[in-house]
Amino acid sequence: MDIDKMFKLPAMPPGKAGSKRKLPDLPSAEILKRFRPEESSSNLDEVSSRAPVNRAARVEDENEESSVSQTGAHSGNGYDQGDADEEDEEGRFFGGGLNDEQNQILDIFDKATDDLEETAAMTLPALRRMTGQFERTVTRNAEQRGKYADDPSKFIDSESDLDAILKRFLPLTQNPTVFYPELVKSGTVTLLVSLLSHENTDIAIDVVEVLQELTDEDVGVQDDLSDDDDDLATQKAEGSSETRLAMAELIDALISNSVFELLVSNLERLNEKEDTDRQGVFSILGVFENLLSFMPPLADEVGSTTQLLKWLLGRMSLEAYDSNKQYASEILSILLQSSRANALKVIEMEGVDKLLTILSQYRRRDPREAEEEEFMENTFNCLVSLVSQPEGKEQFVEAEGVELMIMMLKENKMSRSRAIKVLDYALQPADGVPACERFVEMLGLKTLFSSFMGKTGDKKGRSRGGTFEEDEHLLDIISSLFTNLSSDTPSRLRLIAKFVEKDYEKIDRLLELRRDADGRLKTIDRQISEQRKVHGEDIDESQEDEWYLDRLSSGLSAVQNADYILAWMCMEDDGDTRDVLSGKRKHRYLKVNST
Asked: In what residue span(s) does the Beta-catenin-like protein 1 N-terminal domain sit (predicted)?
């Protein structure tokens, strides 16, 4: 029996296994070497008194073993003392020098080796045996917990057995198309989900880690494929399709057993001051991310059937920053970006005001590290999702969100570009009229056009260069102002005056941005034209939609907004803007372009 090989865990699938919570290490090889035949019997006796108790079985107390030995009872391997003496003369390991307790320890090690080898070479019959053992282990633990509720020492061994067998589910990701349907068919998924409500949170965390691994996005990527180039693409497509079907079946079973509600209940009962519980919270959020990535429409169900939105918003509001706070912001962003129902629910929780409070810390300082920058980005995205709704725009104005965004533009920190994006969505028609009027009242035009002209810098004179995406948002904001501000009102007249002042320099800047956007648009149009020639008549409506979105993001939106603004200026500026466009001031435009 290879003692060293016994404690080598089976190979784990790729994914997030490296970050999983780990239990204490198994006994070292140095200790186990003392069981080998070259060691003296005294050493074996010494080791036996300190040998760790295996979770799969228990060793009787030393006093009981001594009494059995004195009465001449047979040892655990069926040899009596005479046999042992005879074997000792032949120098055999399983003979003399081993008492009953030591023989039982070796039997335990043999059983552990068999279990590990079975897991490493998992087959469908082996899985069925394992699920049967799992069911018996769960039943035994439940019975002992019920019978000895006031004495944990009586059920601690069954709890250890349960912990150990849960770890054996992790390698099942190596062959999801075979193993996942069996987990569902055998009722193992139902049993796993039920353990999320186990009294011992460590067991619940074990289950969470199993679910996180089983639903990981990388499941199935190492399926064996043919080296034949002609068949490789086909096999990949078929393998991916089969894996997705198996994953969908597993997720359907999880949802049918109320996995969302049970996961959220664990978020509420775990104490993040403890390391294991903090890792457990991170793993629970990982399960939600996996499920939402695989089935985005689940966002509505999560929001309607659980208190996850409330928990996430509260977790983000905590002052101390950590990885779980960042992860909470990411999950909330996912839940809000494609679900109006979830956005409305968060708005009812005064979510706009809470998000503004969270973001206010970045008015005068930048995030301290990359992970915190991602947290800030996610929080801004959550705010964008809320102010995109009419109800969110109203709450945004009431919570003085317009004022905070203007201050962020002035401070010119990393939050500046995100504030521009928020204003873009908050001012958009319809229902953006109150926000537009508040923006002008709070002297936002001056700050807006400083960014528009590229005259941005912090108090030390350091400049943050604008991007094409930022310029697009600025054009969107100006376009919304022209749409929402009523004619002949003081606010609209102030907007027009901004374009007239300083010899129409902002018109020149607008033409410059339009020319840049038009150049980008022509580039993407040439690429689309080449693709049309290649695809010929195989172009469908979805392809046309994809090309249109490419054109929008590559300059079309900016060109349209620039033309819209120029049209309004030509109509309301008594012809002076037309002079600029007709060429009477063309020399100035060329001068600007040459620089």
From this structure: 98-208
Domain that holds residue 83: 3-113
Of the three residues 256, 280, 310, the one that is the final residue of a domain is: 256
User: 432 lies in a domain?
Assistant: yes
User: Quick one: 457 and 571 in the same domain?
Assistant: yes
CATH code: domain of residue 521 = 1.25.10.10
Could you tell me if 21 and 139 lie in one domain? Answer: no
- Identify whether the C-beta of residue 405 lies closer than 8 Å to the C-beta of residue 366: no
As a whole number of angstroms, the distance between CA 480 and CA 568 comes to: 12
Helices assigned H by DSSP within 428-489? 433-441, 444-452, 468-484
Distances 58 to 53, 132, 138, 157, 167 between C-alpha atoms, Å: 7, 21, 18, 8, 20
Both 460 and 577 in one domain: the answer is yes
- For residue 593, give every residue at least 6 positions away whose Cβ sits within 8 Å of its Cβ, in sequence order, or none: 512, 515
Instruction: Identify the residue whose tokens are 């003081």.
Output: 490
Q: How far apart, in whole angstroms, are the C-alpha atoms of residue 524 and residue 521?
A: 5
**Contacts with 145 (C-beta within 8 Å, 6 or more apart), sequence order:** 155, 158, 199
Q: Which is higher by pLDDT, 49 or 397?
A: 397
Task: Please tell me whether residues 52 and 179 are part of one structural domain.
Answer: no
Q: Find, among 167, 127, 183, 159, the residue nearest to 53 by Cα.
A: 159
No. of H helices and E strands in the chain? 31, 0
pLDDT of residue 101: 66
User: What domain count does the chain have?
Assistant: 3
The more confidently predicted of residues 190 and 225 is 190
Q: Which residues, 6 or more positions from 18, have their beta carbon under 8 angstroms from its beta carbon?
A: none
pTM (predicted TM-score): 0.76
Residue recorded with tokens 């999950």 = 331
- Among 78, 113, 148, identify where a domain stops: 113
More confident residue, 117 or 183: 183
Residue 281 maps to a domain: no
Query: How many whole angstroms separate alpha carbon 539 and alpha carbon 427?
Result: 37
pLDDT computed for residue 77 by the predictor:
43
**Residue 371, domain member (yes or no):** no
What tokens does 422 get? 């928020």
The Cα 316–Cα 333 span in angstroms is 12
Do 186 and 251 reside in the same domain of the chain? yes
Q: Is 258 helix (H, G, I), strand (E, B) or coil?
A: coil
109 shares its domain with 132:
no
Q: Which of 150-159, 373-382, 438-447, 484-493 has the lowest mean pLDDT?
A: 150-159
Q: Are residues 131 and 8 in the same domain?
A: no
Count the Cβ atoms, other than its own, within 10 Å of residue 536: 7
pLDDT given for residue 56 in this prediction = 40
**Domain-located, residue 268:** no
Distance of CA 417 to the CA centre of its chain: 24
Instruction: Detail the DSSP E strand segments found in 328-417.
Output: none
Closest CA relative to residue 254, chosen from 199, 306, 188, 312: 188
Residues 8 and 93 in one domain: yes
CB 313 within 8 A of CB 351: yes
Cα(346)–Cα(501) distance, integer angstroms? 43
Q: Quick check: 458 pLDDT over 80?
A: no
User: Mean of the pLDDT values across residues 327-348?
Assistant: 96
pLDDT surpassing 50 at residue 69: no
Query: For residue 115, with 0-12 CB atoms within 10 Å meaning exposed, 13-18 middle and 19 or more buried, which class applies?
Result: middle
The amino acid occupying position 276 is T
